[in-house]
Specification:
54% of the residues lie in helices and 11% in strands. It is an alpha+beta fold.
Length: 639
Protein backbone atom coordinates (compact mmCIF):
# COMPACT_ATOMS: atom_id res chain seq x y z
CA UNK A 1 0.00 0.00 0.00
CA UNK A 2 1.15 3.55 -0.80
CA UNK A 3 0.21 6.72 1.09
CA UNK A 4 -2.11 8.96 -0.93
CA UNK A 5 -0.84 12.26 -2.32
CA UNK A 6 -3.45 14.19 -0.34
CA UNK A 7 -2.23 12.64 2.92
CA UNK A 8 1.41 13.39 2.06
CA UNK A 9 0.52 17.01 1.32
CA UNK A 10 -1.46 17.32 4.56
CA UNK A 11 1.52 15.94 6.53
CA UNK A 12 3.89 18.41 4.82
CA UNK A 13 1.52 21.31 5.52
CA UNK A 14 1.28 20.45 9.22
CA UNK A 15 4.99 19.84 9.87
CA UNK A 16 6.88 22.30 12.05
CA UNK A 17 10.51 21.36 11.38
CA UNK A 18 11.79 22.98 14.59
CA UNK A 19 9.21 21.05 16.61
CA UNK A 20 10.05 17.76 14.89
CA UNK A 21 13.82 18.08 15.28
CA UNK A 22 13.49 19.31 18.88
CA UNK A 23 12.19 15.85 19.76
CA UNK A 24 15.70 14.55 19.07
CA UNK A 25 18.19 17.37 19.67
CA UNK A 26 18.37 20.51 21.80
CA UNK A 27 18.13 23.49 19.44
CA UNK A 28 19.35 27.00 20.26
CA UNK A 29 18.08 30.04 18.35
CA UNK A 30 20.82 32.02 16.57
CA UNK A 31 19.64 34.82 14.34
CA UNK A 32 16.73 33.59 12.25
CA UNK A 33 17.98 29.98 12.38
CA UNK A 34 18.51 27.30 15.02
CA UNK A 35 21.74 25.50 15.84
CA UNK A 36 22.76 22.32 17.70
CA UNK A 37 25.41 19.65 17.99
CA UNK A 38 25.01 17.14 15.19
CA UNK A 39 22.96 14.04 16.05
CA UNK A 40 24.90 12.17 13.35
CA UNK A 41 28.54 12.80 14.35
CA UNK A 42 30.61 13.33 17.46
CA UNK A 43 31.47 17.01 17.23
CA UNK A 44 32.65 19.59 19.77
CA UNK A 45 31.33 22.73 18.06
CA UNK A 46 27.75 22.84 16.74
CA UNK A 47 27.46 22.65 12.96
CA UNK A 48 23.86 21.39 12.71
CA UNK A 49 21.49 24.12 11.50
CA UNK A 50 17.73 24.38 11.06
CA UNK A 51 16.09 27.08 8.95
CA UNK A 52 12.38 27.42 9.85
CA UNK A 53 11.82 29.90 7.02
CA UNK A 54 13.04 27.35 4.48
CA UNK A 55 11.82 24.24 6.38
CA UNK A 56 15.27 22.73 5.94
CA UNK A 57 18.02 21.29 8.14
CA UNK A 58 21.69 21.04 7.22
CA UNK A 59 24.41 19.16 9.10
CA UNK A 60 27.78 20.55 7.98
CA UNK A 61 29.80 17.90 9.83
CA UNK A 62 28.15 14.93 8.11
CA UNK A 63 26.85 16.55 4.92
CA UNK A 64 23.31 15.35 5.60
CA UNK A 65 20.40 17.68 5.00
CA UNK A 66 16.82 17.97 3.87
CA UNK A 67 13.33 18.58 5.20
CA UNK A 68 11.70 17.21 8.35
CA UNK A 69 10.85 13.95 6.60
CA UNK A 70 14.48 13.42 5.57
CA UNK A 71 15.58 14.16 9.15
CA UNK A 72 13.24 11.53 10.62
CA UNK A 73 14.46 9.02 8.02
CA UNK A 74 18.10 9.67 8.96
CA UNK A 75 17.78 9.83 12.73
CA UNK A 76 15.39 6.88 13.07
CA UNK A 77 16.93 4.74 10.32
CA UNK A 78 13.61 4.27 8.51
CA UNK A 79 12.37 4.69 4.95
CA UNK A 80 10.24 7.44 3.40
CA UNK A 81 6.85 5.80 3.98
CA UNK A 82 7.71 4.96 7.60
CA UNK A 83 8.83 8.55 8.21
CA UNK A 84 5.54 9.86 6.81
CA UNK A 85 3.60 7.51 9.10
CA UNK A 86 5.71 8.63 12.09
CA UNK A 87 4.90 12.29 11.36
CA UNK A 88 1.24 11.52 10.66
CA UNK A 89 1.00 9.88 14.07
CA UNK A 90 2.77 12.84 15.71
CA UNK A 91 0.28 15.33 14.25
CA UNK A 92 -2.81 13.11 14.54
CA UNK A 93 -3.32 12.80 10.78
CA UNK A 94 -5.27 9.83 9.42
CA UNK A 95 -3.19 8.03 6.80
CA UNK A 96 -5.08 7.26 3.59
CA UNK A 97 -3.44 4.55 1.51
CA UNK A 98 -3.76 3.62 -2.14
CA UNK A 99 -3.31 0.27 -3.86
CA UNK A 100 0.08 -0.10 -5.51
CA UNK A 101 0.33 -1.07 -9.15
CA UNK A 102 1.99 -4.30 -10.27
CA UNK A 103 4.92 -2.22 -11.48
CA UNK A 104 5.33 -0.59 -8.05
CA UNK A 105 5.19 -3.97 -6.32
CA UNK A 106 7.78 -5.36 -8.74
CA UNK A 107 9.95 -2.31 -8.08
CA UNK A 108 10.17 -3.00 -4.34
CA UNK A 109 13.85 -2.81 -3.63
CA UNK A 110 15.91 -5.46 -1.90
CA UNK A 111 15.95 -3.57 1.38
CA UNK A 112 12.16 -3.62 1.60
CA UNK A 113 12.15 -7.30 0.64
CA UNK A 114 14.56 -8.08 3.48
CA UNK A 115 12.35 -6.23 5.97
CA UNK A 116 9.30 -8.15 4.76
CA UNK A 117 11.06 -11.52 5.04
CA UNK A 118 12.38 -10.70 8.51
CA UNK A 119 8.93 -9.57 9.64
CA UNK A 120 7.51 -12.89 8.44
CA UNK A 121 10.23 -14.80 10.30
CA UNK A 122 9.60 -12.86 13.51
CA UNK A 123 5.87 -13.55 13.36
CA UNK A 124 6.51 -17.19 12.50
CA UNK A 125 8.81 -17.72 15.50
CA UNK A 126 6.23 -16.07 17.78
CA UNK A 127 3.46 -18.28 16.42
CA UNK A 128 5.57 -21.40 17.04
CA UNK A 129 6.26 -20.27 20.61
CA UNK A 130 2.60 -19.75 21.49
CA UNK A 131 0.82 -22.32 19.34
CA UNK A 132 3.14 -25.22 18.44
CA UNK A 133 3.57 -28.09 20.91
CA UNK A 134 7.39 -27.96 20.67
CA UNK A 135 7.42 -24.19 21.05
CA UNK A 136 5.15 -24.25 24.09
CA UNK A 137 6.84 -27.15 25.87
CA UNK A 138 10.41 -25.96 25.32
CA UNK A 139 10.53 -22.26 24.39
CA UNK A 140 7.59 -20.86 26.36
CA UNK A 141 8.46 -23.00 29.38
CA UNK A 142 12.03 -21.64 29.34
CA UNK A 143 10.91 -18.00 29.25
CA UNK A 144 8.43 -18.54 32.07
CA UNK A 145 11.08 -20.31 34.13
CA UNK A 146 13.20 -17.17 33.70
CA UNK A 147 10.34 -15.29 35.30
CA UNK A 148 9.17 -13.50 32.14
CA UNK A 149 5.46 -12.71 32.15
CA UNK A 150 3.36 -13.23 29.03
CA UNK A 151 3.11 -9.46 28.64
CA UNK A 152 6.93 -9.15 28.69
CA UNK A 153 7.36 -12.02 26.22
CA UNK A 154 4.96 -10.30 23.84
CA UNK A 155 6.52 -6.88 24.40
CA UNK A 156 9.86 -8.15 23.03
CA UNK A 157 8.28 -10.40 20.36
CA UNK A 158 10.16 -13.44 21.72
CA UNK A 159 9.82 -16.68 19.78
CA UNK A 160 11.08 -20.19 19.16
CA UNK A 161 12.62 -21.87 16.10
CA UNK A 162 11.61 -25.49 15.44
CA UNK A 163 14.26 -28.17 15.73
CA UNK A 164 14.03 -28.98 12.03
CA UNK A 165 16.17 -28.31 8.96
CA UNK A 166 13.35 -26.50 7.13
CA UNK A 167 11.05 -25.41 9.95
CA UNK A 168 11.05 -21.81 8.69
CA UNK A 169 12.23 -22.27 5.12
CA UNK A 170 9.38 -24.53 4.02
CA UNK A 171 6.48 -22.23 5.04
CA UNK A 172 8.44 -19.20 3.80
CA UNK A 173 8.87 -20.71 0.34
CA UNK A 174 5.19 -21.67 0.33
CA UNK A 175 4.33 -18.03 1.06
CA UNK A 176 6.33 -16.95 -1.98
CA UNK A 177 9.60 -15.79 -0.39
CA UNK A 178 12.60 -16.58 -2.57
CA UNK A 179 15.61 -18.54 -1.34
CA UNK A 180 17.77 -15.61 -2.43
CA UNK A 181 16.01 -13.14 -0.12
CA UNK A 182 15.86 -15.63 2.77
CA UNK A 183 19.60 -16.18 2.45
CA UNK A 184 20.35 -12.46 2.19
CA UNK A 185 18.22 -11.89 5.29
CA UNK A 186 20.41 -14.38 7.18
CA UNK A 187 17.52 -16.81 7.74
CA UNK A 188 18.82 -19.78 5.76
CA UNK A 189 22.22 -21.25 4.88
CA UNK A 190 23.41 -22.94 1.71
CA UNK A 191 26.06 -25.60 1.40
CA UNK A 192 27.08 -27.54 -1.70
CA UNK A 193 24.34 -30.13 -1.31
CA UNK A 194 21.88 -28.63 1.12
CA UNK A 195 19.84 -25.53 1.98
CA UNK A 196 18.59 -25.29 5.56
CA UNK A 197 17.46 -23.00 8.40
CA UNK A 198 20.13 -21.01 10.23
CA UNK A 199 18.15 -21.10 13.50
CA UNK A 200 17.00 -24.51 14.74
CA UNK A 201 15.71 -25.56 18.16
CA UNK A 202 16.47 -22.22 19.84
CA UNK A 203 14.60 -19.50 21.70
CA UNK A 204 14.55 -16.38 19.53
CA UNK A 205 15.29 -12.78 20.45
CA UNK A 206 14.28 -10.45 17.57
CA UNK A 207 16.50 -7.38 17.22
CA UNK A 208 14.57 -4.25 16.20
CA UNK A 209 15.78 -1.01 14.70
CA UNK A 210 14.79 2.31 16.25
CA UNK A 211 11.55 2.35 14.27
CA UNK A 212 10.52 -1.11 15.49
CA UNK A 213 11.27 -3.18 12.40
CA UNK A 214 12.85 -6.61 12.89
CA UNK A 215 16.34 -6.46 11.39
CA UNK A 216 18.03 -9.54 12.88
CA UNK A 217 17.80 -12.30 15.50
CA UNK A 218 19.75 -13.57 18.47
CA UNK A 219 19.13 -17.23 19.24
CA UNK A 220 19.92 -19.27 22.39
CA UNK A 221 20.18 -23.02 22.51
CA UNK A 222 18.64 -24.86 25.46
CA UNK A 223 20.71 -28.01 24.96
CA UNK A 224 23.59 -29.06 27.18
CA UNK A 225 25.70 -29.96 24.12
CA UNK A 226 29.01 -28.10 24.58
CA UNK A 227 29.77 -28.44 20.86
CA UNK A 228 26.88 -26.12 20.12
CA UNK A 229 27.47 -22.39 20.71
CA UNK A 230 25.18 -21.02 23.40
CA UNK A 231 24.15 -18.04 21.25
CA UNK A 232 24.19 -17.53 17.52
CA UNK A 233 23.25 -14.28 15.80
CA UNK A 234 22.17 -13.10 12.39
CA UNK A 235 25.02 -12.22 10.04
CA UNK A 236 25.55 -8.71 8.70
CA UNK A 237 22.94 -7.99 6.03
CA UNK A 238 21.68 -5.10 3.94
CA UNK A 239 19.55 -3.96 6.90
CA UNK A 240 21.61 -5.14 9.89
CA UNK A 241 25.01 -3.85 10.93
CA UNK A 242 25.64 -5.02 14.47
CA UNK A 243 28.00 -2.16 15.30
CA UNK A 244 25.22 0.36 14.57
CA UNK A 245 22.44 -0.99 16.80
CA UNK A 246 21.83 -1.75 20.45
CA UNK A 247 19.33 -4.37 21.57
CA UNK A 248 16.14 -2.95 23.06
CA UNK A 249 16.49 0.60 21.67
CA UNK A 250 12.99 0.54 20.17
CA UNK A 251 11.38 -0.42 23.47
CA UNK A 252 13.62 1.87 25.55
CA UNK A 253 14.05 5.10 23.60
CA UNK A 254 11.09 7.00 25.07
CA UNK A 255 12.01 5.97 28.63
CA UNK A 256 15.64 7.00 27.99
CA UNK A 257 14.45 10.43 26.89
CA UNK A 258 12.09 10.77 29.85
CA UNK A 259 14.68 9.66 32.43
CA UNK A 260 17.58 11.40 30.63
CA UNK A 261 19.59 8.28 31.41
CA UNK A 262 20.43 5.01 29.66
CA UNK A 263 21.45 1.83 31.46
CA UNK A 264 23.82 -0.28 29.38
CA UNK A 265 23.98 -4.04 29.96
CA UNK A 266 25.51 -7.00 28.17
CA UNK A 267 22.82 -9.52 27.22
CA UNK A 268 19.28 -9.86 25.88
CA UNK A 269 17.85 -11.33 29.07
CA UNK A 270 19.42 -8.54 31.14
CA UNK A 271 17.37 -6.02 29.17
CA UNK A 272 14.15 -8.03 29.40
CA UNK A 273 14.47 -8.74 33.15
CA UNK A 274 15.11 -5.08 33.90
CA UNK A 275 12.04 -4.05 31.93
CA UNK A 276 10.01 -6.48 33.98
CA UNK A 277 11.50 -4.91 37.13
CA UNK A 278 10.24 -1.51 36.04
CA UNK A 279 13.51 -0.20 34.56
CA UNK A 280 12.72 0.49 30.92
CA UNK A 281 15.55 2.86 30.00
CA UNK A 282 17.96 0.00 29.30
CA UNK A 283 19.70 -1.38 26.20
CA UNK A 284 22.32 -4.01 25.49
CA UNK A 285 25.43 -4.10 23.34
CA UNK A 286 24.47 -7.75 22.70
CA UNK A 287 27.75 -9.21 23.92
CA UNK A 288 29.93 -7.24 21.48
CA UNK A 289 32.47 -4.57 22.36
CA UNK A 290 30.85 -1.15 22.54
CA UNK A 291 31.24 0.85 19.32
CA UNK A 292 31.22 4.57 18.55
CA UNK A 293 28.12 4.08 16.38
CA UNK A 294 26.24 2.52 19.31
CA UNK A 295 27.29 5.41 21.58
CA UNK A 296 26.11 7.95 19.01
CA UNK A 297 22.78 6.14 18.78
CA UNK A 298 22.28 6.33 22.56
CA UNK A 299 23.51 9.93 22.48
CA UNK A 300 20.49 10.92 20.38
CA UNK A 301 18.29 10.38 23.43
CA UNK A 302 20.51 11.21 26.44
CA UNK A 303 24.02 12.32 27.39
CA UNK A 304 24.05 10.09 30.49
CA UNK A 305 25.02 6.40 30.45
CA UNK A 306 25.29 4.06 33.42
CA UNK A 307 27.08 0.81 32.64
CA UNK A 308 25.96 -2.21 34.68
CA UNK A 309 28.55 -4.91 35.45
CA UNK A 310 28.47 -8.30 37.14
CA UNK A 311 31.07 -8.94 39.86
CA UNK A 312 33.79 -10.33 37.55
CA UNK A 313 36.74 -7.91 38.00
CA UNK A 314 38.68 -9.36 35.05
CA UNK A 315 35.70 -8.82 32.76
CA UNK A 316 35.25 -5.27 34.03
CA UNK A 317 38.89 -4.37 33.33
CA UNK A 318 38.52 -5.73 29.83
CA UNK A 319 35.58 -3.38 29.25
CA UNK A 320 37.36 -0.16 30.31
CA UNK A 321 37.84 0.72 26.64
CA UNK A 322 34.04 1.08 26.39
CA UNK A 323 34.00 3.67 29.17
CA UNK A 324 36.84 5.58 27.52
CA UNK A 325 34.90 5.57 24.25
CA UNK A 326 31.83 7.00 26.00
CA UNK A 327 33.95 9.78 27.54
CA UNK A 328 35.52 10.50 24.17
CA UNK A 329 32.04 11.14 22.76
CA UNK A 330 31.37 13.72 25.51
CA UNK A 331 28.77 11.65 27.35
CA UNK A 332 28.71 11.39 31.14
CA UNK A 333 29.28 7.85 32.39
CA UNK A 334 28.64 6.07 35.69
CA UNK A 335 28.93 2.42 36.64
CA UNK A 336 27.13 -0.03 38.92
CA UNK A 337 28.80 -3.28 39.99
CA UNK A 338 26.59 -6.15 41.15
CA UNK A 339 27.62 -8.55 43.92
CA UNK A 340 29.90 -11.40 42.88
CA UNK A 341 28.05 -14.10 40.98
CA UNK A 342 25.16 -11.78 40.07
CA UNK A 343 24.23 -10.02 36.84
CA UNK A 344 21.37 -7.61 36.01
CA UNK A 345 19.12 -10.53 35.04
CA UNK A 346 19.63 -12.68 38.15
CA UNK A 347 19.85 -9.75 40.59
CA UNK A 348 16.69 -8.03 39.34
CA UNK A 349 14.76 -11.30 39.80
CA UNK A 350 16.01 -11.72 43.37
CA UNK A 351 14.21 -8.69 44.83
CA UNK A 352 11.24 -6.41 44.40
CA UNK A 353 11.09 -3.88 41.60
CA UNK A 354 11.35 -0.99 44.08
CA UNK A 355 14.39 -2.48 45.83
CA UNK A 356 16.16 -3.12 42.52
CA UNK A 357 15.61 0.42 41.27
CA UNK A 358 16.83 1.81 44.58
CA UNK A 359 19.96 -0.37 44.37
CA UNK A 360 20.80 1.12 40.97
CA UNK A 361 20.47 4.68 42.29
CA UNK A 362 22.41 4.03 45.50
CA UNK A 363 25.31 2.18 43.86
CA UNK A 364 26.00 4.33 40.78
CA UNK A 365 29.62 5.55 40.89
CA UNK A 366 31.29 8.17 38.74
CA UNK A 367 33.84 6.62 36.43
CA UNK A 368 36.84 7.81 38.48
CA UNK A 369 35.64 6.21 41.71
CA UNK A 370 34.62 3.09 39.82
CA UNK A 371 37.87 2.74 37.90
CA UNK A 372 40.01 3.45 40.96
CA UNK A 373 38.14 0.89 43.06
CA UNK A 374 38.58 -1.78 40.41
CA UNK A 375 42.27 -1.06 39.78
CA UNK A 376 43.13 -0.92 43.50
CA UNK A 377 40.87 -3.86 44.43
CA UNK A 378 38.68 -1.62 46.52
CA UNK A 379 41.63 0.17 48.10
CA UNK A 380 43.37 -3.02 49.24
CA UNK A 381 46.21 -2.80 46.73
CA UNK A 382 47.67 0.71 47.05
CA UNK A 383 51.44 0.15 47.00
CA UNK A 384 53.31 3.12 45.43
CA UNK A 385 54.07 1.45 42.11
CA UNK A 386 50.46 0.36 41.72
CA UNK A 387 49.22 3.82 42.70
CA UNK A 388 51.33 5.53 40.03
CA UNK A 389 49.92 3.17 37.36
CA UNK A 390 46.35 3.79 38.57
CA UNK A 391 46.82 7.58 38.51
CA UNK A 392 48.20 7.51 34.98
CA UNK A 393 45.38 5.23 33.83
CA UNK A 394 42.68 7.46 35.31
CA UNK A 395 44.25 10.67 33.95
CA UNK A 396 44.46 9.05 30.49
CA UNK A 397 40.68 8.56 30.66
CA UNK A 398 40.10 12.15 31.81
CA UNK A 399 42.19 13.42 28.88
CA UNK A 400 39.65 11.92 26.47
CA UNK A 401 36.87 14.24 27.67
CA UNK A 402 36.41 17.04 25.09
CA UNK A 403 34.96 19.55 27.57
CA UNK A 404 37.70 21.45 29.45
CA UNK A 405 35.47 22.32 32.42
CA UNK A 406 34.52 18.68 32.88
CA UNK A 407 38.18 17.70 32.76
CA UNK A 408 38.95 20.21 35.53
CA UNK A 409 36.16 18.89 37.76
CA UNK A 410 37.30 15.29 37.30
CA UNK A 411 40.94 16.19 37.95
CA UNK A 412 39.93 17.70 41.30
CA UNK A 413 37.85 14.62 42.14
CA UNK A 414 40.77 12.34 41.21
CA UNK A 415 43.17 14.38 43.37
CA UNK A 416 40.86 14.09 46.39
CA UNK A 417 40.21 10.37 45.89
CA UNK A 418 43.83 9.34 45.35
CA UNK A 419 45.24 11.87 47.82
CA UNK A 420 47.62 13.57 45.40
CA UNK A 421 48.34 17.20 44.66
CA UNK A 422 45.97 18.58 42.01
CA UNK A 423 48.79 20.45 40.23
CA UNK A 424 50.65 17.18 39.69
CA UNK A 425 47.59 15.74 37.95
CA UNK A 426 47.11 18.90 35.88
CA UNK A 427 50.74 18.67 34.76
CA UNK A 428 50.30 15.00 33.79
CA UNK A 429 47.04 15.81 32.00
CA UNK A 430 48.68 18.60 30.00
CA UNK A 431 51.48 16.28 28.91
CA UNK A 432 48.92 13.81 27.57
CA UNK A 433 46.87 16.54 25.86
CA UNK A 434 49.96 18.01 24.17
CA UNK A 435 51.05 14.56 23.02
CA UNK A 436 47.57 13.86 21.60
CA UNK A 437 47.44 17.24 19.86
CA UNK A 438 50.76 16.53 18.18
CA UNK A 439 49.33 13.25 16.90
CA UNK A 440 46.21 15.04 15.66
CA UNK A 441 48.33 17.74 14.00
CA UNK A 442 50.43 15.12 12.21
CA UNK A 443 47.24 13.43 11.06
CA UNK A 444 45.79 16.75 9.86
CA UNK A 445 49.02 17.55 8.02
CA UNK A 446 48.87 14.19 6.26
CA UNK A 447 45.24 14.85 5.34
CA UNK A 448 46.12 18.37 4.09
CA UNK A 449 48.93 16.96 1.96
CA UNK A 450 46.52 14.52 0.34
CA UNK A 451 43.97 17.31 -0.24
CA UNK A 452 46.64 19.57 -1.75
CA UNK A 453 47.82 16.79 -4.03
CA UNK A 454 44.26 16.20 -5.17
CA UNK A 455 43.67 19.92 -5.71
CA UNK A 456 46.85 20.21 -7.79
CA UNK A 457 45.77 17.21 -9.83
CA UNK A 458 42.37 18.78 -10.53
CA UNK A 459 43.97 22.14 -11.38
CA UNK A 460 46.31 20.47 -13.85
CA UNK A 461 43.35 18.71 -15.42
CA UNK A 462 41.46 21.97 -15.80
CA UNK A 463 44.48 23.72 -17.31
CA UNK A 464 44.62 20.98 -19.92
CA UNK A 465 40.99 21.85 -20.81
CA UNK A 466 40.82 25.63 -21.33
CA UNK A 467 37.15 25.37 -22.32
CA UNK A 468 36.20 24.03 -18.89
CA UNK A 469 33.59 26.14 -17.04
CA UNK A 470 34.32 26.09 -13.30
CA UNK A 471 31.55 24.44 -11.38
CA UNK A 472 31.38 27.32 -8.91
CA UNK A 473 30.28 29.90 -11.55
CA UNK A 474 27.21 27.87 -12.51
CA UNK A 475 26.68 26.83 -8.91
CA UNK A 476 26.58 30.49 -7.80
CA UNK A 477 23.92 31.23 -10.37
CA UNK A 478 21.77 28.37 -9.09
CA UNK A 479 22.43 29.44 -5.48
CA UNK A 480 20.91 32.86 -6.17
CA UNK A 481 17.83 31.21 -7.68
CA UNK A 482 17.34 28.81 -4.75
CA UNK A 483 17.80 31.46 -2.07
CA UNK A 484 16.41 34.65 -3.66
CA UNK A 485 14.21 33.80 -6.66
CA UNK A 486 11.16 35.46 -5.07
CA UNK A 487 12.96 38.68 -4.06
CA UNK A 488 12.52 41.81 -6.26
CA UNK A 489 15.26 42.63 -8.78
CA UNK A 490 13.61 45.86 -9.88
CA UNK A 491 10.06 47.20 -10.05
CA UNK A 492 9.28 45.02 -13.07
CA UNK A 493 10.71 41.60 -12.23
CA UNK A 494 11.94 39.31 -9.49
CA UNK A 495 15.44 37.88 -9.22
CA UNK A 496 14.35 34.47 -10.48
CA UNK A 497 12.80 36.04 -13.57
CA UNK A 498 15.90 38.18 -14.22
CA UNK A 499 18.23 35.15 -14.02
CA UNK A 500 15.90 33.09 -16.21
CA UNK A 501 15.74 35.82 -18.90
CA UNK A 502 19.52 36.36 -18.84
CA UNK A 503 20.36 32.65 -19.15
CA UNK A 504 17.54 31.50 -21.44
CA UNK A 505 19.98 30.91 -24.33
CA UNK A 506 22.74 29.44 -22.17
CA UNK A 507 23.29 25.77 -21.43
CA UNK A 508 24.89 24.98 -18.11
CA UNK A 509 27.75 22.53 -18.50
CA UNK A 510 27.02 20.65 -15.27
CA UNK A 511 24.05 18.33 -16.04
CA UNK A 512 22.64 18.41 -12.51
CA UNK A 513 22.77 22.22 -12.30
CA UNK A 514 21.22 22.45 -15.77
CA UNK A 515 18.39 20.11 -14.70
CA UNK A 516 17.78 22.03 -11.46
CA UNK A 517 17.77 25.43 -13.23
CA UNK A 518 15.33 24.02 -15.81
CA UNK A 519 13.03 22.83 -13.03
CA UNK A 520 13.18 26.26 -11.37
CA UNK A 521 12.38 27.87 -14.73
CA UNK A 522 9.21 25.79 -15.00
CA UNK A 523 8.01 27.09 -11.62
CA UNK A 524 8.90 30.70 -12.52
CA UNK A 525 7.11 30.53 -15.91
CA UNK A 526 4.06 29.08 -14.16
CA UNK A 527 4.04 32.07 -11.80
CA UNK A 528 4.83 29.93 -8.73
CA UNK A 529 7.03 30.93 -5.81
CA UNK A 530 10.32 29.03 -5.85
CA UNK A 531 10.71 27.17 -2.53
CA UNK A 532 13.61 24.84 -1.62
CA UNK A 533 11.30 21.93 -0.78
CA UNK A 534 10.16 21.87 -4.43
CA UNK A 535 13.55 20.33 -5.27
CA UNK A 536 13.92 18.09 -2.24
CA UNK A 537 12.53 14.58 -1.93
CA UNK A 538 13.28 10.87 -2.13
CA UNK A 539 12.84 10.67 -5.90
CA UNK A 540 15.92 12.78 -6.74
CA UNK A 541 18.52 12.50 -3.95
CA UNK A 542 21.34 14.18 -5.96
CA UNK A 543 19.24 17.25 -6.70
CA UNK A 544 18.05 17.32 -3.09
CA UNK A 545 21.61 17.31 -1.78
CA UNK A 546 22.74 19.99 -4.24
CA UNK A 547 19.90 22.35 -3.27
CA UNK A 548 20.48 21.75 0.45
CA UNK A 549 24.18 22.52 0.03
CA UNK A 550 23.30 25.83 -1.65
CA UNK A 551 20.97 27.08 1.06
CA UNK A 552 22.28 30.14 2.88
CA UNK A 553 22.02 28.82 6.44
CA UNK A 554 25.31 28.62 8.29
CA UNK A 555 26.91 32.02 7.95
CA UNK A 556 25.20 35.04 9.45
CA UNK A 557 25.93 37.92 11.84
CA UNK A 558 24.48 37.25 15.27
CA UNK A 559 22.20 39.79 16.94
CA UNK A 560 24.17 42.66 18.51
CA UNK A 561 27.47 41.68 16.90
CA UNK A 562 28.04 44.97 15.09
CA UNK A 563 27.12 47.02 18.17
CA UNK A 564 29.39 44.91 20.38
CA UNK A 565 32.47 45.01 18.13
CA UNK A 566 31.87 48.42 16.45
CA UNK A 567 32.57 46.81 13.08
CA UNK A 568 30.37 47.42 10.07
CA UNK A 569 29.65 44.39 7.90
CA UNK A 570 27.77 43.84 4.68
CA UNK A 571 25.94 40.90 3.18
CA UNK A 572 24.73 40.25 -0.36
CA UNK A 573 21.16 40.51 0.96
CA UNK A 574 21.69 44.24 1.49
CA UNK A 575 21.88 44.77 -2.29
CA UNK A 576 20.52 41.65 -3.95
CA UNK A 577 20.08 43.17 -7.43
CA UNK A 578 23.77 44.12 -7.50
CA UNK A 579 24.88 40.69 -6.22
CA UNK A 580 22.64 38.95 -8.78
CA UNK A 581 23.90 41.13 -11.63
CA UNK A 582 27.52 40.27 -10.76
CA UNK A 583 26.77 36.56 -10.70
CA UNK A 584 25.28 36.78 -14.20
CA UNK A 585 28.26 38.84 -15.41
CA UNK A 586 30.71 36.22 -14.09
CA UNK A 587 28.78 33.46 -15.83
CA UNK A 588 28.69 35.36 -19.13
CA UNK A 589 32.37 36.29 -18.86
CA UNK A 590 33.26 32.61 -18.60
CA UNK A 591 30.97 31.69 -21.50
CA UNK A 592 32.56 34.41 -23.66
CA UNK A 593 35.99 33.09 -22.71
CA UNK A 594 34.91 29.64 -23.87
CA UNK A 595 33.64 31.06 -27.18
CA UNK A 596 36.92 32.92 -27.76
CA UNK A 597 38.87 29.72 -27.18
CA UNK A 598 36.54 27.75 -29.48
CA UNK A 599 36.92 30.25 -32.34
CA UNK A 600 40.69 30.42 -31.88
CA UNK A 601 40.84 26.64 -32.26
CA UNK A 602 38.74 26.87 -35.44
CA UNK A 603 41.06 29.56 -36.77
CA UNK A 604 44.10 27.32 -36.28
CA UNK A 605 42.46 24.59 -38.33
CA UNK A 606 41.02 26.83 -41.08
CA UNK A 607 42.78 27.26 -44.43
CA UNK A 608 40.07 29.32 -46.16
CA UNK A 609 40.78 33.07 -46.34
CA UNK A 610 37.17 34.29 -46.05
CA UNK A 611 36.49 31.94 -43.17
CA UNK A 612 39.65 33.12 -41.41
CA UNK A 613 38.58 36.76 -41.78
CA UNK A 614 35.14 36.01 -40.31
CA UNK A 615 36.71 34.15 -37.39
CA UNK A 616 39.14 37.00 -36.71
CA UNK A 617 36.26 39.49 -36.66
CA UNK A 618 34.29 37.22 -34.31
CA UNK A 619 37.27 36.80 -31.98
CA UNK A 620 37.84 40.58 -31.94
CA UNK A 621 34.15 41.19 -31.14
CA UNK A 622 34.14 38.57 -28.37
CA UNK A 623 37.33 40.00 -26.83
CA UNK A 624 35.72 43.44 -26.78
CA UNK A 625 32.71 41.97 -24.99
CA UNK A 626 35.02 40.11 -22.62
CA UNK A 627 36.86 43.35 -21.74
CA UNK A 628 33.57 45.19 -21.20
CA UNK A 629 32.25 42.53 -18.84
CA UNK A 630 35.61 42.40 -17.04
CA UNK A 631 35.57 46.17 -16.55
CA UNK A 632 31.95 46.04 -15.34
CA UNK A 633 32.98 43.47 -12.75
CA UNK A 634 35.85 45.67 -11.60
CA UNK A 635 38.44 43.02 -12.39
CA UNK A 636 41.96 44.31 -13.12
CA UNK A 637 43.63 42.35 -15.90
CA UNK A 638 47.35 42.75 -16.62
CA UNK A 639 48.20 42.80 -20.30
Amino acid sequence: MAISDSTIQEIKNRIDIVEVISDFVSLKKVGSNYRALSPFTNEKSPSFYVSPSKDIFKCFSSGKGGDAIAFVMEVEGINYIEALKYLANKYGIEVQEEEQTDEQITAQNERDSLFIALKFAGEFFQDVLWNHSEGKSIGLSYFKERGFSEATIKKFDLGYSLDAWDGLMKPALEKGYSEEILEKAGLILKSENKTYDRFRGRVMFPIHNVGGKVIAFGARTLRKDKKQPKYINSPETGVYHKSDIVYGIHQARQAIRNEDLCYLVEGYTDVISMHQSGVQNVVSSSGTSLTKEQIRLIGRYTKNITVLYDGDAAGIKASFRGIDLILEHDLDVHAVVFPEGEDPDSFSRSMSSEAFQQFLKDNAQDFITFKTNILTEGGKNIDPVKKVAVIRDVVESISLIPDGIKRSVYIKSCADLLEIDEQVLISELNKILIKNRKKDKQHDERESAVDEQLANSLQAKHEEQPGYTPFYVERECLRMVINYANEPFDEHQKIGEFILNETVDLKFDDPLINETISKASEFIRAGKKVEPDMFIGPDHPKMSQLVIDLLDMKYFISDGWEELHKISTSHEKEDLPKATYKVILRLKRKKIEEMIHHNEELLKKSSIANEQDELLLMIKHLKTLFDQVTTELGIVVSK
